Amino acid sequence: MSRFAIWFGKNADAAIALILAVVVAVLGIGVNLPDERDIINSAILAVIGLLATSVLRDRGRRAPVEAEVRDTLRASSATLDGLSDKLAHIERFEGVVADTKRALDETTVVRVISGAEVARVLADARRETDRWFFKGGTGTYIRAKTLPECVAAARRERRTLLFRIEIIDPTHVEVCEAYARHRRSVSDGPDATGEPWTLERTRKEAYATILAACWHKQRFGMLDIDIGLARTMTTLRYDLAASRVVVTRDDPRGEALVVDSGKFYYGWVSAELQTSLDQARRVPVEQARLAPLDDEPTVEEVRKLFEVIGVELASGYTDRDVIEIIRKALRAKDPYE
């Protein structure tokens, strides 16, 4: 009985329509045996009543369904708006992660090597480079290895070679004395070349680098070399080749930094070295042609050279001092050996 009540509650309109249709049909059929038109009319009335009842029922049920659909769509729209915000946060987070990864990749390129590896890394850098930028103290290693080997490779391959050198000014006594004091503070004894650092040695080493640059320039016309003399000293040495930059200190046994080309720090160092060189006192190396140098320069030739390029030799330098400068220029000792 309860099942019938529940069913009748859900389908009352249809049941009533069905009853009305049956009653009308029965009345239409009646005892008087109406003709066929009465029977057809009664059937049509029954069908129309049933159809109207069904339409009313469907409309009544559709209203709450439509309201529910509208509520569902509103909720979905709010959910999608929240999802859009979350997606924007995710995209920003992914951007931060990508930037962090890029920064980590860049920092891993800055390699730290031991002093024992420096000579090998510099030799690899010299092998096929077409340029070299140096900034440091007096340029001993430049004279001993870098400049002669790079010139030899460029001559052999018949290509140009760009060199930029910045060292301390040998005519500026204060900066030379400061550099000598700094080197002695690191080690009181002689360095790998067998000599202690004094004011006179510092000046002669710098003079020798200038002489070596002019000597190589006269023997290899495709060498584009520029020299700047600084009146401030640095405790670091920068050697920048086409493939990498190597940052060392004055101690050959100390660790060094290596940055491969193509990385942002390589470009920074390149710009810094060029800017620093532009601010240094320039040596007119092109004027060296006015003072030709033999394969074994004489004292007179060297004195003439420094005169024409405008770099004064220290007052009181004897021929023996000039000969020592020539020896350091053309037969410099490798500080890494």
The share of residues in helices is 55-70%
Strand content: 5-15%
Overall mean pLDDT: 83
Secondary-structure element order, N to C: HHHEHEHEHHEEEEHEHH
What gross morphology would you assign?
rod-shaped
CATH class of the largest domain: Alpha Beta
Give the count of structural domains.
2
Name given to the CATH homologous superfamily of the largest domain: Endonuclease Chain A
Distance between the terminal alpha carbons, to the nearest Å? 112 Å
List low-confidence stretches. Answer: none
Structural class: alpha+beta
Number of strands: 8
Main sheet attributes: strand count, strand direction, barrel closure: 8 strands, mixed
CATH-derived architecture of the largest domain? 2-Layer Sandwich
| Number of alpha- plus pi-helical segments | 10
Keywords: Membrane, Transmembrane, Transmembrane helix
Give a quick summary of the entry.
Keywords: Membrane, Transmembrane, Transmembrane helix. This protein has 337 residues and is an alpha+beta fold.
Question: How are the secondary structure elements laid out?
Answer:
Elements: H1 2-10, H2 12-29, H3 36-109, E1 111-113, H4 115-126, E2 131-135, H5 140-157, E3 161-168, H6 173-186, H7 199-219, E4 223-230, E5 236-240, E6 244-249, E7 256-260, H8 264-279, E8 281-283, H9 299-308, H10 319-330
Helix pairs in contact: 2-3, 5-7, 6-7, 7-10
Q: How would you describe the overall organization of this protein?
A:
There is one protein chain. The chain is 61% helix and 13% strand. The protein has 337 residues and is of the alpha+beta class. The protein folds into 2 domains: 1-109; 111-330, Endonuclease, Chain A (2-Layer Sandwich). The protein has an 8-stranded mixed β-sheet with strand order 1-7-6-5-2-3-4-8, sandwiched between helices. A hairpin with a 6-residue loop joins β6 (244-249) and β7 (256-260). It starts with a helix and ends in a 7-residue tail after the last helix. The relative contact order is 0.11.
